[in-house]
Amino acid sequence: PQALESLDGIVVLSDHSRARLIGAGVSQAKVHRIYPGVGKPAKAIAGEEALARRQAVVYAGELDVGATDHLIELARTLAEPTMRGWTLIIACRPSPEDAPMRARLGRELAGAIGTGRVEIHGEVDDMNALLERCAVQLFVADQVQRRVDLPLVLLEGLAAGLPLVALDRPPVRE
Fold it and tell me: The pTM is what?
């Protein structure tokens, strides 16, 4: 907080992050929240036929222990007969902190990865192309820590017309 006191103002994207900074001792007058704008989707999924071509679910976020647990559970659900044909796409930038979770996903989902029911990506060159393959985006991280307070990839997905299924956790609940 001391390093932030020299700034004229701090802009955050959620009330959650604003409260955390104020709670850490940053002057309330310096912390300003703006909600990021998401306009009407330019490419909303149009009809059941278009949706049928998009039988993938994407998670693009941090790999914490809770997210890893949820993703493993979802991947196992995709093996059920009613979910056949669906793919779970996990697209997370690698970091030293998530190496154990990434290794666990590789071990526990090796069969699903081998059959193509699960894809694990690191850095994604064209996120829009990846999102266009998907019917829904997930956000199942227990908390947002290492990056911006509201993951921009969620806003990208919403702008692309993808519905979002998220855990009821701050700041995403906003």
Answer: 0.76
